[in-house]
Amino acid sequence: MAAIADVVSTAAIAAGLVTALLGVPLLSRRVPPNRWYGVRTPATLRSKSRWYRVNTYGGRRLLLAGLAAMLAGAVIRISGPDVLPVMALAAIGSYAFGVLDTLWFAVMDRD
Fold it and tell me: Which pTM was predicted?
């Protein structure tokens, strides 16, 4: 079980790092409207101001979800396999919350 905990902790830390790094350009408004990267809805692609507002919000959520995943991975690495289920759910939950919260914001956002 310890080997599984090591793999999960490494994966959580790596995925968290990538996720956090993907959030930084969105948070700092460095990503212009496009069809590949960012929160792409018909409304955000129609309005530049909405694009930046929603993607700044989403970038912050990506950064926070990435940090939460890295923290969960670190806790698994330090504490061992006993905390694996709880921390794995915490990492997955942080991603789910970030995505759903950002989509809700995008839908509810009005110019």
Answer: 0.90
